[in-house]
Amino acid sequence: MAITVRSMQRVVGLLVAALVLFWIIDSPTTAAATVTNILAILGSIAESFVEFVRALF
Q: Please, which domain of life does this record's source organism belong to (predicted)?
C-alpha cells in the first residue's frame, strides 16, 4: 500500500482536529481566551490596513 500525499494530509488534518477538540474540551476558558486574542489581533490588522489605504487617498 502506497502512502500518498493526499492520505497524509487527511491523517494530519484529522490529528490536528482531534487535538484542537481535546484542547477545547480540556480547557474551554483558555481556548476562548485564545480565540478572543486572535480575533483582536485580526481586528487590529484590519484597522491598520484601513488607515493605510486612507493615507494613500
A: Bacteria
Helix, strand, coil % in the chain, rounded to nearest 5: 90, 0, 10
User: How many separate domains does the chain show?
Assistant: 1
Can you give the pTM of this predicted structure?
Answer: 0.67
DSSP for residue 23: H
Ranges of the chain with pLDDT below 70: 1
Separation of alpha carbons 25 and 48, rounded Å: 34
Cα distance between residue 46 and residue 8, in whole Å: 34
Residues 24 and 31: their CA atoms lie apart, in Å, by 6
Residue with cell 486612507: 54
- Its domain, for residue 33, covers 5-56
